[in-house]
Each structure stands twice: as C-alpha cells, then as structure tokens.
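Q: Could you fold this chain for me?
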Amino acid sequence: MNKTDSRFMNDSSTIPPFTELPSLMSLSTGVIGNSKTNSYQALEIGTRTMKSFIGSNFGNIKQSKKNVVLPLASVSSAIQMNNETVVVDPLIIFQRTTITKKNDGDVADFLKYELSPFPLALFNEGGMRKSRKSSLYDAFPEESSAIIDFKSSINVVDGGFLLHRVKWNVGCKFSSICDQYVSYLIKHYGEKCIVIFDGYGEANNTKLAEQRRRGTTKMSVDINFEETMTVTVQQEHFLANGRNKTRLIPLLRQKMSSNGIETRDAKGDADTYIVRCGLEKATSHPTVAIIGEDVDLIVILIALAPAESDIYFMEPGKGKVEAKIFSTRKLQQELSFAQTILLLHAFSGCDTTSAIYRKSKASTVNLFKNQLSQMKNIADIFYNPSSTSDAISPAGEKMFLAIYKAPANEYNLNNHR
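A: Sure. Below is the predicted structure, expressed as structure tokens.
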C-alpha cells in the first residue's frame, strides 16, 4: 500500500474536519435540524414529484404533503397549523399582504396576528432598545457653578461613577490605587463627603442584566488580589468584571474610612439609595449635593425631593465639557413635567425599560410639554400602587398612541399601526 495514501486515510479518520451529528446542521448559523428536516433531499424529492405528474392533466395534479421539503428554517421559523409544520417566510407574507389588501382596514386585520418573535418597536436582536439617557440633561435648566461651595457642603458621591472617574494604570499597586481615590475625593469634595457603592449582588434582575450588557465590550478574568499586589490588566477591563469590583470595594471603603470619609454599601437599587441618603442629610444640613453622571439620579431626585427642600445635583465635567449643576427647587418650579418625570423617563428608555424605536428623549419631552394634562392623567394611574392591570393596560396604550401622534379620536393602537 502507498504510504502516503495510508497516512492520509489515518489522519482523515482520526481527526475528522466536522463533528459527526445525527441531524442536519447549518455551518453558518449552527442551527440543528430535527428528524423532519429534509432539505438535503430536495433534488430527489423534486425529481420524484415531477415524474409522478407525467401523463396527468394539470387540473388533476395534487401535491402530497409527504413530498414537501422542510428546510432548516422550519426549526426556528415555523408554526403549527392543523398538525402541520408551516415555515414562516417574511417575504412571502409581505407579498401576499400587499396583493390581498384592499384598504387600510385590511392591514389592521392582518396586524392582529403576532408573527414577530418579539415587539420590534421595543426590542432588537440584542435585547431591549436603548436610548441616549444623558440627552435628558438638555431639558433641565442649570445653576451657576458659583452657587455652591463643594468643600463646605455635604456631598453624596455615586461610588459607581467614582470607580471609573479616577484613572489608574497597569503596574500600580492596589494600595496606591486606593490612595488615588481618597486623594481625589478630598481634593474635589472634602472630607465630609459620603460615598455609596452598589452592592453588585448576584440577584437576576433587569438592571443587573443592563450592567452586564454594558460590560460585554471589555472583559477580564476573575482576579484575586491584595493591597500589595500589582495591577496586571487595564482599568476598564478590570472593572467590567463585577466580581473584581466586589473585591476592590472593601479595600476602598477601608482606606476611605481610615481617612474620615463615610462610606455605605447600597442594598437593592443603588440610585434610589443615593437619593434617599441625600434627602436624609438635607434635613440636618443647609447644603447637600449629589454627585454622579447617571441621569437616573436626578430623575429620582426630582420625583422624591420635598418641595420645601433644595438639594443640588452635579454632573462632573470631562475634558473641555464643564460640570453641570442643578437645583431641585428650580427644576420642580420651572419644569412643567416635573410631576410626571418618572413616567417620561420610563417610556423614553432607561436601565429597566426599552426605548421606543426612533422616539428620542427630546421628542418625548416635547410630548409631555404639549399634552401635559393627558400625561398627568396617565401618570396618576401608573403612580397609584393600587392600580390594576386592567387600568394600566389601556393607560399604556394611550401613552403609545400619544407618542406615535395618533388622532384624538383613535383609541386602538393596532388600528393606528
């Protein structure tokens, strides 16, 4: 036997290029077929079917179901109708809809059937649609930067913002990194500041899923470290791993406490905890400021701050962009939609809700300004803890109709589509 042929046979038999599977699999998508998938027999089935038609009149030709070819798409894009698997082809559906519709009323009837795997107005292939939350700051009137002395005020600092704000490099010791955070706090916010860190728990919820989604572009392995050890990965990659942050925070809290800086660990929603801490301090101190970048903080602050209080919020500057300072008293007095701010933020997209396709924060703000009375009526239903789903559902539908500028006499979202 030829040694070359023998070697080739040995290699090809012991190291096959493809995994042996009992079912058909797409090399491009990885979709695995089932026992009924027979697209690889299309030529054979088609030839056999055509031969069976020879000698028959056209009017007498009937196609047998056993001669139907089921492609791999039938695994993920098929529905059951009368015990029969029917592949859903979006192009064919669109063509037939276009041909058969006689008026807009027919389209409304067609859209009663949910054929999309998820609501496209709220979700995409990656999950919830996201909006640029920070654009909401543009709707808020600012205060002068000279109005508050941060060295003498009580400053509540978002620990999540702080972790990324202070920059450190590969090669630094963790003890030195902790000192950098302490120096930054004392320099900018004084020793009276309070730093609140997110607990970064393991509970599965929408907000935790959003935090994980943001960290998918930068990854890091779990790192067990002590103060004397040296950082071996870049800061953003290190902080993208929640378990690394969970290990770093106790070191930071210990170092801050030893320098007279109060720290707290938020249980549950950190944003709400930070705002409530600021409200608590405002009862005993004339000037309180909340420091952070997340617009969720100022939204919650506007909603929860008593009318008689005046708490400041600062979004620190970055590069040539100056810091922005806001007063709750000014915001509550000048924003016509202040009482409905939570509803506005939720329907225009936040950490726990989807943004609506092609509907920005700015357009939603304009809607609330122009239709304030209707928005307040809808907000009352959502804000009422005793509201039932029967009341919330039509209120939500009215909200969507308003967002999509439906006529005043239109009460059905499906018809408006």
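A (continued): The longest strand covers residues 154-158.
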